[in-house]
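I would like you to sit down with the pair of lines that follows and say whether C-alpha cells and residues agree.
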Amino acid sequence: MKDLIIVASLAHLLLHVVAQTSNVTTCIPLYQWSLNSRLQTPCLVGAFLESVCEGPVEVNTLPEGNHYIGPSSSDATLCRCSTVTYSLISACAGCQNRTFRPWTEWAAACTQVEVGQFLQTIPAQVVVPSWAYLDVTKTDNIFNPILANQSLSQPPSSTSASTLAASSGTPLSSTPLTLPSTSTATHKNPNAGAIAGGVVGGLVFLVLVVLATLLFLRHRRRSSEEAGFTTRSSISTSPTQMQEGGRRSAQTITPFPYKEPFAKERSEGATLPGSPVMSAVHTTYDSPSVAPPALEVLHRYTGSAEV
C-alpha cells in the first residue's frame, strides 16, 4: 500500500512537471539574448511561473498576426499578475517575431499586482533571467527588450531567494535596475551648470572689454579734439593783426612820407617809391597809382589801429 502511494505521488509530480511545456524551443537571432543560462526560452519559463498558481500551463507558438492576452477575472492570479511573468511572455512573443501588448492591458483584470518581483516559489526546473525583474512601469508600462538585453550583467534570480521570502512571510522587494537614461541625466547636470557658468562669465568679460574699449576711444578722441583746438588757437590770427573783410590793420601799412614836391614829381611823370611803373599810354581802365590810397590811409589813421 505504501508503495502504491509513492508511485501515485511520483506520477502526479511527473504529470505536473511535464504539463508545464512550450513548443517554442528557440528564438530569432534578435532575441537570442532572452534564453537563460540553461538555454530555456522565456516561453517555457513563463509557463512554469504561471503553473505555480493555477496548475499545468502550456505556452505554445503564436500564429502570425496574434498576440498573447493577459489573465481574465477568473484566472487573475498573482502568478499571472506579476510583471515578471508579463515580461517573460512578452519576450516569448518577441522570440517568434510577434508583437506584445502593454502591461496595463495585460493586467486590466488583476485586482492585485506584483511589480518587479515574483513572490511565489519558483520551480527548481527553471531559472528566471534577471531582465524579467525590470520595472516595466518605468518604461511607459511596456516591456523594453533593449533595456532587458542591456541588463544581462545582473545575476539571475535563485530559487532560494524566493523560497526564503515565502518561508519567512516577508515580501521580497526587488531593487529596480537603474535605467541608462537616469544615470546619463545625473552625470550631465554638473556639466550643464559648468557650461552655463562659463557662458555667463564669458559674456560678462566680453561686455567689460567692449565698455573699456569704448571709454578708451572716447578719451582718445576727446584728447585729440583738445589738442587740435589748442593748435588752431595758437596759429590763428589775433584780432590786432586782422580785421573784418580780411583787410590788414593800419599797423601793417607803412605810409609813404608826404613830400611837398609831390605835385611836381607827378606832373613830371616821376614814380613814387614802391609804386608800379605805369605804361606811357593811359586809359580810363588803367589801375590807379598806389600813392593816393596810401595818402588816404594816412589821413584815415592817426598811427594807431582802429578797434
Summary: The chain has a mean pLDDT of 69. The radius of gyration is 58 Å. The longest helix spans residues 180-235.
